[in-house]
């Protein structure tokens, strides 16, 4: 006679992702602190990207400017990463807005307008996470979040402020390049970054770290 036991990790591994523990709207101190630290780090990265890399991209795509929007995903990464780590309403928006504030403080070519961009970008990821009720955080959800963040940023702001003189065809291409970058660079790239951080043990206090531990137990 044998008994059947289900390992703790096996039950958990049946789920694709683990939602935040406790009340969904109740942020822990570690949630706030970690999201803020990530945002500051990304804000510094933004400043470096604005200063060194973006001018090179602008030069390289001078012959076909819409292609420059393939770099958009870089600015969307904080929202995806914050949302995937903290897994509570407002995490994506908070991380993106704090990163935008740091970028503004350090100096950039767009000035205070980066705060509007941060709002739109964070909101895009929040809407996707809300659609799955903060219960799914896999690569598909991350890619959709990055893509929608790009759509809101471009349609809600960049079309009218950065490229108002583009032809309709160029505006469509500009949008497509941005969506591809949002899905791949911010979405899948952000998801991969979170997984790497979880495997390193840096996210042991968060659901991604718990997923890694339970996977090893299964």
Oligomer designation: single chain
Given helix and strand content, the structural type is mainly alpha
Number of strands: 0
Shape: globular
- In whole angstroms, how far apart are the ends? 24 Å
Order of helices and strands: HHHHHHHH
- Indicate how many domains the architecture comprises: 1
Q: Compute the gyration radius: what is it?
A: 19 Å
What portion of residues is helical?
over 70%
Could you name the ranges where pLDDT drops below 50 across 5 or more consecutive residues?
Answer: 1-14
Could you tell me the strand content as a percent range? under 5%
Number of helices: 8
What is the arithmetic mean of pLDDT?
Answer: 91
Account of the protein in words:
It is a single chain. The chain has eight helices and no strands. It has 218 residues and is an all-alpha fold. Pfam families: ABC_cobalt (PF09819).
């Amino acid at each position: 006679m044998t008994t059947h036991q289900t390992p703790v990790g096996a039950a958990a591994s049946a789920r694709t992702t683990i939602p935040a523990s406790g009340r969904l709207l109740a942020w822990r101190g570690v949630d706030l602190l970690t999201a803020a630290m990530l945002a500051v780090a990304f804000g510094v990265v933004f400043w470096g990207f604005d200063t060194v890399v973006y001018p090179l991209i602008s030069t390289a795509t001078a012959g076909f400017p819409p292609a420059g929007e393939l770099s958009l995903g870089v600015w969307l990464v904080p929202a995806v990463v914050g949302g995937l780590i903290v897994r509570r309403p407002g995490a994506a928006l908070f991380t993106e807005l704090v990163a935008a504030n740091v970028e503004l403080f350090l100096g950039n070519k767009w000035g205070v307008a980066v705060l509007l961009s941060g709002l739109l970008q964070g909101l895009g990821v929040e809407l996707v996470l809300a659609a799955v009720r903060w219960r799914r955080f896999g690569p598909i959800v991350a890619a959709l979040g990055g893509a929608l963040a790009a759509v809101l940023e471009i349609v809600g702001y960049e079309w009218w402020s950065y490229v108002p003189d583009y032809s309709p065809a160029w505006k469509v291409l500009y949008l497509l390049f941005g969506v591809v970058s949002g899905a791949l660079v911010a979405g899948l790239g952000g998801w991969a970054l979170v997984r790497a951080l979880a495997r390193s043990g840096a996210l042991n206090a968060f659901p991604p770290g718990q997923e890694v531990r339970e996977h090893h137990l299964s």
